[in-house]
């Protein structure tokens, strides 16, 4: 009987694996045929970059650079969708052996991470990328003693690497914030136990901000302030919940 169950589970795992692989191949094929549209959408979303010149453009220094950029872009988009499908299939596979309250908690956790993923992407497109490019917009006309000028010409592959790097930083930050909120909620039912971990969480926030941000103090202060503010708001809401 145990062998039959093992065979049944192995067949289900195999079928789900092929389903994930099939979804990844479909996404890869679809993104390949829409690669120009995807690249245009990424560039079009950055208004600060579009304002650098009347006709924004990219430079390439290699014949095969455009091909590799498109390939990396298609692979990046396909992998993100495949990861989401993988998490969903894992959730569906585990849900068969869970109790109802465990299934409810896991379902809520999956929804929170999905919303956090969506929020990180919107934050990236609407705020982080345009805000980071305002530096080049303001420094474009800067000159040093009227002898030294700075003019930005963006390489296509470097812009894509920049976008992907900032995407992962934003995604990790939002997921970490979601984990923090979940941990604070389930840490204790009492407010005093949450306050006891305040210094520890402050140190974790500072270390995390130092790791994910560029080596400048303003970025570290900005990210640390957001995390600390979210932490204090959570404590405040917890206090209101206990009062009412």
TrEMBL record:
GO molecular function, one term: proton motive force dependent protein transmembrane transporter activity
Residue ranges of the TM segments: 21-43, 67-87, 108-129, 159-184, 196-212, 218-237
One GO CC term, this protein: TAT protein transport complex
Pfam families in alphabetical order: TatC
Membrane topology: Multi-pass membrane protein
Annotated compartments: Membrane
Keywords: Membrane, Mitochondrion, Transmembrane, Transmembrane helix
Keyword Glycoprotein assigned: no
GO biological process, one term: intracellular protein transmembrane transport
Major localization listed first in the record, in broad terms: membrane
Family: Belongs to the TatC family.
Annotated protein name in UniProt: SecY-independent transporter protein
Species this protein is from: Durinskia baltica diatom endosymbiont
């Amino acid at each position: 009987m145990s062998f039959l169950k093992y065979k049944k589970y192995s067949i289900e795992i195999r079928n789900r694996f092929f389903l994930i692989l099939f979804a990844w191949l479909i996404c890869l094929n679809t993104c390949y045929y829409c690669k120009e549209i995807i690249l245009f959408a990424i560039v079009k979303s950055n208004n600060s970059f579009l304002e650098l010149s009347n006709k924004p453009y990219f430079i390439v220094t290699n014949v095969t650079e455009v091909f590799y950029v498109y390939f990396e872009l298609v692979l990046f988009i396909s992998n993100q969708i495949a990861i989401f499908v993988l998490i969903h299939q894992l959730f569906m596979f585990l849900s068969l052996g869970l109790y109802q309250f465990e299934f409810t908690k896991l379902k809520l956790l999956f929804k929170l991470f999905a919303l956090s993923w969506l929020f990180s992407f919107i934050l990236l497109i609407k705020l982080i990328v345009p805000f980071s490019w305002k530096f080049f917009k303001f420094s474009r006309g800067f000159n040093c003693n009227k002898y030294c000028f700075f003019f930005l010409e963006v390489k296509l592959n470097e812009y894509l690497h920049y976008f992907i790097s900032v995407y992962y930083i934003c995604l990790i930050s939002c997921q970490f914030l979601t984990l923090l909120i979940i941990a604070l909620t389930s840490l204790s039912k009492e407010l005093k136990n949450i306050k006891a971990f305040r210094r520890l969480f402050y140190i974790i926030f500072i270390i995390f901000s130092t790791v994910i941000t560029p080596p400048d103090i303003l970025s570290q202060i900005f990210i640390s302030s957001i995390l600390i503010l979210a932490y204090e708001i959570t404590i405040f809401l917890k206090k209101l919940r206990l009062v009412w």
